[in-house]
Write a structure and sequence with these properties.
Blueprint (H helix, E strand, L loop, with lengths): L1 H16 L12 E6 L7 H8 L2 H4 L2 E6 L7 H6 L5 E5 L2 H8 L4 E6 L2 E2 L7 E4 H5 L13 E4 L5 H12 L8 E4 L5 H6 L5 E3 L4 H7 L3 E5 L6 E2 L1 E6 H6 L1 H17 L8 H11 L3 H6 L13 H13 L18 H10 L6
Parallel strand pairs: 1-2, 1-3, 7-8, 7-9
Antiparallel strand pairs: 3-12, 4-12, 5-11, 6-9, 6-10
Helix pairs in contact: 2-11, 2-12, 11-15
């Protein structure tokens, strides 16, 4: 009887202190390198980090900036990162046509009016009457953050709404944080500016939104996995998508208006939480659905722009893998708005 009581006591003690035998320790999290740009549209990444969703999946996300002159897809294919959070541009289609080792695995955000990347002009130019409409941009310099990126397609749509085309303006590249200064010194007449930087510049009296209703429901950014990550770490690849969708669901509806979310965005973008809460929020698909028609539309746009290095259109199935979203949904279940 005494022996049984002693065994029971040891079992209870082990349970109380959480002791595990040698060789049975929890595995350390896998470090997953993620290429990103610290802007509001990539908020699911930051929410998943701060709310511990990646940690729940045994993942430690290591954020790395954009690779300068190197294509993000080259970075993926060469093994310098496992994941890229980025736009759908000419580089995507050219990389897929070259057979680089990566896949599009899920959506990041869609643009809906009022868009989270508006076309803006300086307040001085607007108030003076120099630029009051898109038509006033004819012959002038207008910027996107990267030529050949999805923002070039957004600008195309904004110009069409005003009766112009890209051929009617001088297209230049200016990084989002530099747009207000470039407008102020006359280097550009207008430019696309992503949130929350647009609201920050607006509150500081630097810019006026010239157009913000030119895109409705178009998917323009995506999550990319390297082929090596997919093949060697399928469990973590699914886990990353589980965490991503959980964070995307946190941002649904008025998510960006919540204090905690706004503080998270502030931490990673440097824009005050109060400004984040006022910004036009992007839309994050809570069930990870991707619109193949948007990929085809963007590919055709860049083909007409002469930005593609191949002729025959690519089937989206060549470079898109929806299996990780499906497996993540098997874990999370379908989204139900509260």
């Amino acid at each position: 009887m005494k022996q049984r009581l002693m065994v029971l006591a040891v079992v209870l003690l082990v349970a109380a202190v959480g002791w595990t035998p040698v060789g049975a320790q929890a595995q350390p999290p896998m470090k997953v390198r993620v290429v990103h740009v610290p802007v509001m549209i990539f908020a699911p990444l930051y929410v998943a980090i701060e709310r511990g969703y990646f940690a729940e999946q045994g993942i430690e996300a290591e954020l790395i900036g954009t690779p300068g002159g190197a294509s993000s897809f080259v970075v993926l294919a060469s093994g310098r990162a496992e994941v890229v959070i980025g736009g759908l541009g000419a580089a995507l289609f050219n990389a897929a046509a070259r057979g680089l080792d990566f896949k599009v695995v899920g959506p990041v955000h869609m643009e809906k009016p009022p868009v989270s990347t508006p076309l803006v002009v300086s307040k001085k130019a607007y108030d003076s009457g120099e630029i009051r409409s898109v038509q006033d941009l004819r012959g002038k310099k207008v910027s996107v953050n990267v030529v050949g990126s999805a923002t070039e397609f957004w600008l195309h749509r904004a110009l069409l709404r005003g009766g112009l085309t890209i051929d009617d303006i001088q297209l230049v590249a200016v990084n989002f944080p530099e747009v207000p200064a470039a407008l102020a010194n006359g280097a550009i007449a207008a430019g696309l500016l992503g949130e929350p930087l647009a609201t920050l510049a607006e509150e500081q009296g630097q810019i006026v939104r010239l157009s913000e209703d030119f895109v409705d429901g178009v998917q323009v950014t995506a999550v990319y996995y390297s082929g090596d990550f997919i093949r060697r770490f399928p469990k973590q690849a699914v886990g990353f998508m589980v965490a991503w969708l959980k964070a995307s669901r946190d941002l649904y509806g008025d998510g960006y208006r919540r204090d905690e979310i706004a503080r998270i965005v502030e931490k990673y973008t440097g824009v005050p939480a109060a400004v984040v809460k006022k910004a036009r929020p992007p839309f994050h698909e809570p069930d990870g659905r991707m619109n193949f028609n948007d990929f085809k539309r963007l590919q055709e746009f860049f083909r007409k722009r002469g930005s593609l290095t191949y002729e025959k259109p690519l089937d989206p199935a060549i470079y898109i893998d929806t299996s990780f979203v499906r497996q993540a949904l098997a874990v999370l279940g379908p989204f139900a708005a509260r």
